[in-house]
Amino acid sequence: MTVRRLTPKDLTAFRALWADGLMRVPTAFLFSAEEVRAFPNKDVERGLEVNLTLGVFNDAKRLVGFVSARRGGPKRMRHMADIGPLYVHPDAQGQGYGRALMEAVLQHLIDAGVQQAELVVDVENQGAQKLYQALGFHVFGRRPRSVLIDGAGRDDFLMIKALDGADLTRDA
User: Fold this and answer.
1) How far is CA 110 from the centre of its chain?
2) Which residue, 34, 30, 54, 50, is CA-closest to 42?
3) Is the alpha carbon torsion for 73, 156, 53, 35 positive or negative?
4) What is the DSSP letter of 39?
5) 20 to 30 A Cα–Cα from 83, which one of 47, 118, 136, 150?
6) pLDDT digit string (tens) for 96-137?
7) Which residues contact 165 (CB under 8 A, 6 or more apart)?
8) Where on the phi/psi map is residue 48: left (φ > 0), alpha (ψ -120 to 50), or beta?
């Protein structure tokens, strides 16, 4: 397995895997399949240049998973980053690809001086929750109707991890 930052050269494979994830697990993504299809390639390429998006490749050098992270924009929020989405193709799940992606993205954030990482996860996605908890994330809130999918509200858990050793559970 190889984990590396995705670049505009990975556009075709990235878009194909993203589309696969949107089809299989629409609750794992903020954007709908229709919205993603409407994004011009130049915008997706720009996102790969600006945001941190890591891909994991199997031994056959096929992209089987990805994770993205965005650092806070305003100066007062630059100490934190949002992680997501994380997606691993079902054929590659249970083989450590998701963990490898998360460990790599967390290390990138630590190296960049980020103090905390946050993410959201569908309340019914227990597999992802187990992974995030094993990596030191904890739930600090629940967002009702975080997204509407086909008119139905889906709740998300808000999860956080200190990357600098701070105790973020004191008020939880």
Assistant:
1) 16
2) 50
3) negative
4) S
5) 150
6) 999 999 999 999 999 999 999 999 999 999 999 999 999 999
7) none
8) alpha
Instruction: Say whether 127 sits in a helix, a strand or coil.
Output: helix
Q: How far apart are CA 66 and CA 89, in angstroms?
A: 9
Contact 155, 145 (CB under 8 A): yes
Question: How many residues make up the chain in this entry?
Answer: 172
Contact 146, 30 (CB under 8 A): no
- Residues 135, 106: contact at Cβ < 8 Å? yes
pLDDT tens-place string over residues 39-50: 999 999 999 998
- How many angstroms separate the Cα of 21 from the Cα of each of 86, 134, 171? 10, 23, 35
Tell me what percent of the chain is helix, strand and coil, each rounded to the nearest 5.
40, 35, 30
* CATH class of the domain at 2-117: alpha beta
Select from 37, 34, 35, 26 the least CA-distant residue to 85: 26
* DSSP reduced 3-state for 147: strand
Can you give the residue ranges of every domain in the chain?
2-117
